[in-house]
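In the current project phase, the collection of sequences with tokenised folds has grown. One resulting record follows, to show the layout:
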Amino acid sequence: MLLSILIPMYNTEKYIGNCLESLIQQDVDPKDYEIIVIDDGSTDNSASVVQSYIKKTENIKLHRQSNAGITVTSNRLLELATGKYIYKIDSDDYVAHHTFGTLLRIMEERNLEVLGFDSCETEQLDLYQFGDEIDVENIEVQTGVEYWAQAKNPRSGANWYIVNREFLVKNNRTFELEDNPMCDTPFTFQLFALVERFTNLPNVIHRYVQVPSSGSNNRNVNHLKRRIFKRKALVYKLRDISDELEEKRRPRFSGMIESLKFWSDVNVYFLFQKFLYVNISIPKINLILKELEDVDAYPMENFTGDKCFSKRHELTTKFFNNKSLFFLMLYPLRLLVRLKIVELNFR
């Protein structure tokens, strides 16, 4: 088996069919790859959609379980995989048609441990056509640390990488953040700290579907409260990885350490956004911020200046870093948010 495609699924009946269709329409013999879906206790008809595809496609496998959360599900998928390479994709996303044959050929010919590619955000479900051809002649092979040091805002999700399974097993890499939708991020950082042979392609292979009801767009208050503490757990984990690399005292890790601190700050920034939507008292917010201060995650020092995504982000970061001013403006801002006078990008 050459490739295992891993899909954790929960209540995505509107999207899982499109995801599977894109994975079937590939330039790889069905006998050479498997599509493994774990239904994590869906309450809609997601499993029925998958079963309808199983009837007509021999390489799709469906496993069902009581709701265990994304981390447990992702690790079980790793255990079930039998392919030489693995690729994990969210059940509401999809990929360009007829691309995996070339990607796998590059993995084989260049003896890669990890292969990366680009993605686009979209609300469309029919962007199947592949754009520019892959330039297989001018592929640069580098270490994961080298890539992370020079790339501008490299992607931290597993959806953008095909990984050699033996490399994962040998290095005992699994998803660690318990029941956390952002468990991909530390997994990817820890993976890249070990990778010796990596290539990143500029080609847009993955389609990141913007779903109104997805975790990143859900504005339910209880959901946001849970999300705050999951974000905080992610920040702690990123800081732990950064500390571990700093203890090695190797200059080669400096770029990755800087990137870890950058993404730590990005997640603190998103925490502040959620403080504006959720009715958490100032004393409780202050306690969270003190905990972040204890691990040098606040104030944000690495999501500033030209490192910010935009001028707006830079100005907002300065505001969030001024704790006294933020607390002074918190309740008026919450009112503006409720009245939809102020709208925030929710990630």
